[in-house]
Specification:
Elements: H1 3-13, H2 17-33, E1 44-47, H3 54-65, E2 79-81, E3 105-108, H4 116-121, E4 124-127, H5 133-143, H6 150-156, H7 161-169, H8 175-184, H9 201-218, E5 230-234, H10 241-252, E6 255-260, H11 261-265, H12 270-286, E7 290-295, H13 311-328, E8 334-340, H14 348-351, E9 358-361, H15 367-377, H16 384-392, H17 399-415, H18 422-427, E10 432-434, H19 437-456, E11 460-466, E12 470-472, E13 482-487, H20 495-516, H21 530-543, H22 557-560, H23 567-590, H24 592-605, E14 607-611, E15 619-620
Parallel strand pairs: 1-3, 1-4, 2-3, 5-8, 5-9, 6-7, 7-8
Antiparallel strand pairs: 10-12, 11-13, 11-14, 14-15
Helix pairs in contact: 2-3, 2-5, 12-13, 15-16, 15-17, 19-20, 19-24, 20-21, 20-23, 21-23
Length: 624
């Protein structure tokens, strides 16, 4: 090739700093390791450094090869990407054993992007090193920018391509710029630590053990493989799954990397989903300490127990196999947190020990926890009594929603140049709407059913019914009353105890049927609802505890929450639920007058407590 053509091509490369960095890194590889990209006998596969783009190296390869051609002075087949960029009109073919004509260099983010047969026929597989300090100096020199000190360049070495480019392209550096560059990688989280937040008590126990192990790992005293590396969090929308992952990453001093299975699938093609999945894990691995938060975890799919040969099954088989491979070795310093609303839809192989160690079911904070969360975010600046009152009107709000409410209230106070007041919180609370007297009575009937059955079946010493007279209009509003119990202890629950618990869970719905001959949707629809609770108990009873008609074990109680039972056991569970519902209907029908009286008391006063020693007579305790 003529020297003036090479000079022209290099002038074009000067317009692309990322290509220049890659070019000098390739030249160094050729000089120090004797790699010959120009030889025409076969092709080389080269994987680019983590968090660097293959496209940058592709442009550099065009210059390095120094061959005759058209675009960039090179035949387009000579340098290809293992995962080509998709456009409306394809400009590049995917690598295939059926078409390797003219191929000299194949660039990949991960070696698994390259078909096995293509790997087999390559003459060499290289792992490219990231740009060095020498490469940074050379790129700045070609760009005509002032030289950086060795200390400044050292800040860039080992950083992702985006951070390195930011430093290379910055004309003049100050001391503050050096500090800012160090923070670019860790700009994700400024939120609270899990250990400081109220609530999340079960999760904190796990996280504290994890934090101790991570400290030993950082000191080189514990291998990463000996640390529990993953967990699944499930719960209704708004339960705080993302908030938990964010607070966990802050507590561990790790970077939070958020993604969803939907984002992985957005490319449409199988190879694009696999590549997106690998990029997420590679990014986490390169962070040397990251919480990889994967939302929509159930959308990863599941493999059929009896394959039918449908092409869609093959797609998901490949996806899940690749995901399992990544989960088996996510990399040192990587904690994987999966989040789902539907844990039962997840392939059981993903949830086995060694991949997903823990499963946390997240619920919404209760009134006391809501007040504690408000106190935490207001920094103790407001009387706790006022926060209790405010928290009582925020039923159904997640920890994240409460934090946002305080943030909005603070902004309002700042705009008026004064300190935060309780009235600021009330001013930004969702609009509330009062229940009608008829609706209040229905809520009272529902909760009275729970309370009466709990005492009648000797499940509790007392039961306290609370009915709010209004609800807020936000989509996640919690629009029901609640009943709390002073439960009798059962250190070794029997079959009768479990059946009674199912009956108590179904009693609210049954009470509505007895009084109104019509049921509302207040018993179901959510994780943690009455119906979900009853269903969970009965499935454990027949599928884990072996207390059904035939003693049979399917899985542990926790695993059974996400595992299907044999059809015969599912049918038996339905039979038990039906029997307990009919049982409760019979009891409450005989106590209809007492049910109505207790419901009216709860609706009128907002809060009542009944005790077993009172002969089930309602006694008012406090005002509504």
């Amino acid at each position: 090739m003529k020297r003036d053509q090479l000079r022209e091509r290099f002038r074009d490369l000067k317009k692309d700093p990322s290509g220049l960095l890659a070019y000098f890194a390739l030249r160094r590889l050729m000089k120090e390791d004797g790699v010959n990209f120009r030889s025409g006998d076969g092709f080389v596969i080269a994987t680019v450094p983590l968090e660097f783009r293959p496209l940058s190296y592709k442009r550099a390869c065009h210059v390095v090869l120094n061959d005759d051609a058209d675009e960039w002075g090179l035949h387009p087949e000579a340098v290809r990407l293992a995962n080509p960029i998709k456009r409306k009109r394809p400009i590049e073919l995917e690598p295939s054993i059926f078409d390797l004509r003219g191929l000299r260099i194949l660039l990949a983010t991960h070696i698994n992007e390259v078909p096995k047969e293509v790997r087999f026929v390559s003459k060499q597989i290289l792992s490219l090193r990231p740009p060095s300090a020498e490469d940074v100096h050379a790129t700045r020199r070609i760009l005509g920018l002032p030289a950086l000190s060795e200390e400044q360049v050292s800040v860039l070495i080992g950083k992702p391509e985006s951070v390195m480019l930011a430093g290379v392209m910055k004309p003049l550096w100050s001391v503050d710029d050096t500090r800012a560059l160090l923070e670019l990688e860790h700009s994700d989280q400024d939120g609270p630590s899990l250990f400081d937040l109220p609530g999340f008590e079960e999760q904190k126990v796990w996280a504290r053990g994890l934090a101790k192990d991570i400290e030993l790992w950082r000191q080189g005293k514990l291998g990463w493989k000996d640390i529990g590396q993953s967990a699944l969090v499930s719960g209704a929308p708004g339960a705080g799954k993302t908030y938990f992952a964010s607070a966990l990453s802050t507590a561990l001093g790790f970077r939070l990397i958020q993604t969803t299975v939907g984002v992985w699938q957005s490319g449409g093609y199988l190879h694009e989903m696999l590549a997106a999945m690998r990029r997420s894990f590679d990014e986490a691995k390169a962070s040397k300490g990251a919480v990889l938060f994967i939302d929509e975890f159930d959308s990863i799919g599941s493999r059929p127990s009896r394959p039918t040969g449908h092409p869609n099954e093959t797609y998901w088989q490949v996806v899940i196999n690749e995901f399992l491979s990544l989960m088996n070795a996510p990399g040192d310093g990587v904690i994987v947190i999966g989040a789902t609303n539907y844990p039962e839809w997840i392939d059981p192989a993903i949830l086995r020990a060694g991949r997903i160690e823990k499963h946390f079911k997240l619920g919404l904070p209760d009134a006391a926890t809501r007040a504690e969360i408000l106190r935490y975010h207001t920094g103790g600046a407001l009387p706790f009594e006022s926060l209790i009152e405010i928290g009582n009107d925020l039923g159904g709000k997640s920890a994240a929603a409460l934090e946002e409410l305080v943030r909005t209230a603070r902004r309002q106070a700042r705009n008026e140049e004064r300190e935060l007041q309780a009235s600021d919180l009330r001013a930004v609370m969702p609009e509330r709407r009062s229940y009608t007297p008829e609706e209040l009575f229905r809520l009272g009937v529902h909760e009275a059913g729970h309370a009466l059955i709990a005492l009648a079946l000797n499940c509790a010493r007392s039961a306290t019914i609370e009915i709010r007279d209004s609800f807020d209009l936000s989509p996640d509003s919690y629009q029901r009353g609640q009943t709390s119990y002073d439960l009798l202890e059962n250190n070794l629950p029997t079959e009768t105890v479990l059946l009674n618990r199912i009956a108590v869970a179904l009693a609210g719905m049954a009470a509505e049927a007895v009084v109104f001959n019509d049921r509302s949707l207040g018993s179901g629809g959510l994780v943690g609802s009455d119906i979900e609770h009853a269903t969970a108990i009965v499935r454990r009873l027949v599928g884990s505890y072996g207390l059904g008609e035939t003693p049979f074990f399917v899985a542990t109680p926790e695993a059974l929450d996400v595992k299907k039972m044999p059809a015969a056991l599912e049918a038996e569970a339905m039979k038990i639920l039906r029997a307990q519902y009919e049982r409760v209907l019979g009891i409450l029908s005989g106590e209809k007058d007492q049910l109505i009286a207790l419901a009216a008391e709860a609706a009128a006063h907002g809060k009542v407590m009944i005790e077993r020693d009172d002969g089930l007579d309602a006694r008012k305790r406090g005002g509504g």
